[in-house]
């Protein structure tokens, strides 16, 4: 079994802590690694290493920092199969999906490689008479990233490439469920020429997170995970005077208008609801059908499509399954519990994924695709994030009712509308209270040069991940006003200077 530790000052540390966590392969239920959970000495080493590295890294030319990013990109491309296998082994998603996650992470590295341009700042000649003004975007200091299990590569890569390229140093605390991909990324950054201490990975749980966000050497905290933890981290980090962006959970609705191409909408729904076993913050978990006729057509086609869905070990290639297991035995129990709740609440269970057994993987954490119809707003299976392969059909009478439903949900991460009607789609994108909207696009994850983030209780803090917001989050703006008057022009002024 693998023994995983931490990556501090450009080296893997010795096993040290008395506390360890177990890492499982969700497809087989076998433990594949043991991970050291950082104690205070390890945490201190990471903080010292990141603080010491900041002085010189923040003064390194952005062009040289960008060159490290270019090399890092090449190294990831060379080693992407190894990285994808690690993701699949410890998360469970199918290999092609793990490859997709790596590509979406790489796009942020590509964005961060343009950092000399992104940090140019602004300049005004003669902002006042004989007075010039320019702004500088300076690195903030030591940044901390706390990331969830569901994207062990992509979500950390929403954060650290931009942060490091901006001149900060970074401490990543990955999910304790699948910590190895982050350690692998750290090694690639070292090989790309990143100086000691600029990027560190420290494994641990709640105790480690508390120490990091309360430490005076940490200036900024980026978090992605469930809403209760996101909210708590945001409050604590803010109380300690740190800037914080904390992205939380989701319940994403897809509105299907009567004029939508049903075949297209159902194909989109299948991937968006059951891909990665529904463990995506942008997964569609609610299909909002306008009118009973639309709902019946969608349901009939979904039923057929679900029958052909292949479920198995994500590492299998002959053929590759469509969907793997859930991440842990506890999470499987939780999802099974929600299915039971849905039945008790009176929703119609059209397809029940609870009895699934995958040959040779009987102890894996599999739950089959599950479909509920006639789900209503009052039900817990509608209100809460299930984070599993469970899709709910909600029937509404028109677009007004669909908008009212989506807008009254506590989460506002992503949403989609499927329609051929430009007017309806235009109205939806303008009036919906959700951060990321797809028009005939089921999972509208913005590209790295745009910003990723939801609304309402799907985010705490004003700045999203990557894109221009990422650069803003990881830099402090300083504005310099300068003038070079002759001594004879210099007089004492006691009122506010204005430009007449
Ligand atoms: P989680 O909230 O349990 O854990 C996220 C991180 O927080 C992990 O590193 C974990 O170790 C740490 N953590 C857990 N409990 C903590 C505590 N009490 N104090 C401090 N730190 C703590 O989330 P998860 O189960 O790993 O991930 C799934 C969740 O993440 C889902 O809710 C999903 O919607 C959300 N998510 C959101 C986005 C987004 O962009 N909005 C993206 C991916 C995942």
UniProtKB/TrEMBL annotation:
> Cross-referenced CDD domains, in alphabetical order?
ALDH_F6_MMSDH (cd07085)
Listed InterPro entries = Ald_DH/histidinol_DH (IPR016161), Ald_DH_C (IPR016163), Ald_DH_CS_CYS (IPR016160), Ald_DH_N (IPR016162), Aldehyde_DH_dom (IPR015590), MeMal-semiAld_DH (IPR010061)
Is NAD one of the keywords UniProt gives this record? yes
Q: Which Pfam families does this chain map to?
A: Aldedh
Recorded E.C. number(s)? 1.2.1.27
Residues in Aldehyde dehydrogenase domain copies: 19-480
Signal peptide feature range? none
Keyword Oxidoreductase listed? The answer is yes
Q: Which UniProt keywords apply?
A: NAD, Oxidoreductase
Q: Which major enzyme category is it? A: oxidoreductase
Q: State the name under which the record lists this protein.
A: methylmalonate-semialdehyde dehydrogenase (CoA acylating)
- Give the organism the record lists: Shewanella nanhaiensis
Highest classification ranks of the organism: Bacteria, Pseudomonadati, Pseudomonadota, Gammaproteobacteria, Alteromonadales
């Amino acid at each position: 079994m693998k023994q995983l530790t931490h990556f501090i000052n450009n080296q893997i540390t010795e096993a040290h802590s008395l506390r360890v966590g177990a890492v499982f392969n969700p497809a087989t239920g076998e433990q594949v690694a043991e991970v050291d959970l950082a104690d205070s000495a390890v945490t201190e080493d990471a903080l010292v290493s990141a603080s010491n590295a900041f002085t010189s890294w923040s003064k390194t030319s952005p062009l040289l920092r960008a060159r490290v990013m270019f090399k890092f990109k090449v190294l990831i491309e060379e080693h992407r199969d190894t990285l994808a296998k690690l993701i699949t082994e410890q998360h469970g998603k199918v290999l092609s999906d793990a490859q997709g996650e790596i590509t979406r992470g790489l796009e942020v590295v590509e964005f961060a490689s343009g950092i000399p341009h992104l940090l140019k700042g602004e300049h005004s000649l003669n902002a006042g008479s004989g007075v010039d003004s320019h702004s500088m975007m300076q690195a903030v200091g030591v940044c901390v990233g706390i990331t969830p299990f569901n994207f062990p590569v992509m979500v950390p890569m929403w954060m650290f490439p931009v942060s490091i390229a901006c001149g900060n140093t970074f401490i990543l605390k990955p999910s304790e469920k699948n910590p190895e991909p982050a350690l692998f990324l750290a090694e690639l950054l070292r090989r790309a020429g990143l100086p000691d201490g600029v990027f560190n990975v420290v494994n641990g749980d709640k105790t480690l997170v508390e120490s990091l966000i309360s430490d005076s050497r940490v200036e900024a905290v980026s978090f992605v995970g469930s809403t209760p933890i996101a909210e708590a981290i945001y409050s604590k980090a803010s109380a300690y005077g740190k800037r914080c962006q904390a992205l939380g959970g989701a319940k994403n609705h897809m509105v299907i208008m009567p004029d939508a191409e049903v075949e297209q909408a159902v194909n989109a729904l299948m991937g968006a609801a059951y891909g990665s076993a529904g463990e995506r913050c942008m997964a569609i978990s609610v299909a909002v059908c306008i009118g009973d006729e639309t709902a019946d057509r969608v349901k009939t086609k979904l039923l057929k499509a679900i029958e052909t869905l292949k479920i198995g070990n994500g590492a299998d290639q002959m053929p590759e399954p469509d969907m793997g297991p859930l991440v842990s035995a506890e999470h499987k129990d939780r999802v099974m519990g929600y299915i039971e709740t849905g039945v008790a609440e009176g929703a119609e269970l059209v397809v029940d994924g609870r009895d699934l057994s995958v040959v040779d993987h009987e102890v894996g954490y599999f739950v089959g695709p599950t479909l509920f119809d006639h789900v209503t707003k009052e039900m817990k299976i509608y209100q809460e994030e299930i984070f599993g392969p469970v899709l709910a059909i909600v029937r509404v009478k028109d677009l007004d009712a669909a908008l009212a439903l989506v807008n009254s949900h506590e989460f506002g991460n992503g949403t989609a509308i499927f329609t051929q009607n430009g007017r309806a789609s235009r109205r939806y994108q303008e009036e919906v209270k959700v951060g990321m909207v797809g028009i005939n696009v089921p999972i509208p994850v913005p590209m790295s040069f745009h910003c990723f983030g939801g609304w309402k209780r799907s985010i705490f803090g004003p700045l999203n991940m990557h894109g221009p917001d990422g650069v803003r989050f990881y830099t402090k703006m300083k504005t310099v006003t300068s003038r070079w008057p002759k001594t004879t022009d210099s007089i004492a002024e006691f009122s506010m200077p204005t430009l007449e």
